[in-house]
Amino acid sequence: MNFCKRKLTRSLLLMLFLSVTAQGVFGQKPSNTISTDTQRLFQQARECLQTGNRWLQSQQQPDGSWRSEAYTSLEQGLGSTALVLATYSEQPRDDLQERRIQQGLVFLTSHLNQQGILNSPEGDVNYPLYATSLLLKSLAESGDMRGEALSGLISRGLLRYQHVPAQGWPANDPGRGGWGPGIEISETAVRMHPANVSVTLHVVTALKQTRKFSLEVRTAVREFLWQCQLQESEHPLAGGFQFAAISDHPLNKAGWQPDKKGELIAIPYFSPTCDGIVLMLECDLPIDDSRVEKALSVLPELPHARLAELPLNPEAKYTPLDAIFFYEQAAAARVWRELQLRRATDRFLRKRRIQSLKKLVKSQHADGHWSNPLPWMLEDDPVIATAFAMQAIQRWLPDSKREP
């Protein structure tokens, strides 16, 4: 009898050990219990979305566009309209909002050139490839592709400007495989407007949604990704991403430094690493790929954009609302949402989610808009800042299918 009891006790202890091991060592599933304070914060954030939406609706022009009041170079409204429509594509919509979206789509599609690119008299200053990719994404999300011909035209236009030699780009282009913001193909353009992680992500997302993302294109994008991800294993920020493929380019907003060989390397920073993580996932890398895991693990250590002071000062202290604050919130929230879609989580992003929502709720103006006192990423334009803020909130908020 005692032998049977000891055997039963050992069995129970073994089961308990295996249970604890499975939960502790291999990762406990995130609890679905949300505190009252967090629930209240989520409700405040939803109310901010509603007031932000009303403010954006009030800014739409009779021709369907949203135009910048802060920048004369953006007065035509192509980039800002594309950004607002991309923001709306992620929000729940009623009939009124659907009509406003359709008005915006009509406005944008009327400005497509023969190559399927949104191009304005101001040229690359309006970020034509960025705006065009957002338009294609919005068309796909709306379910209104205006026929396969329009979808194909825009997709071919975007593919035309991938930085690969077959499209006329220089063979020595450091950004080979990616996309930059503009449509000028030359050695000068490569240096002035190099391929970057952000535009590449938005183009790839649009191409995937319209099933125009071929294996050949994906392979080239992956090569671009490895060029932008810091591979030096002994570097404390290994796994992080730079924004532009040219290491010492001013667009790499955390600066650069010499490596052990004396060659300049860009210092990875937070927002392009968020975009790089999502881009790796869009390129079909699994969530447990070592390159994805490295990027996620280094996120808490990465510096933020240091644009508040020139020349760059690594010792400077910056306020929470500096540099590219709203874009950064939206980029981090997108990583969180992509992890949620794959039933994964991240402790750092879980904590940042609450911090970000609190800042966004607190920084909204009474009439519903957001704005940044600093001009970087054009966030001193309320239309642009409000669009990014609403993207961030929508992505941080719980998905009813996965979280209460």
TrEMBL record:
It comes from the Bacteria. Keywords: Signal. This is Squalene cyclase C-terminal domain-containing protein. Residues 1-22 form the signal peptide. Gene3D superfamilies: 1.50.10.20. It comes from Gimesia chilikensis. InterPro entries: Terpenoid_cyclase/PrenylTrfase.
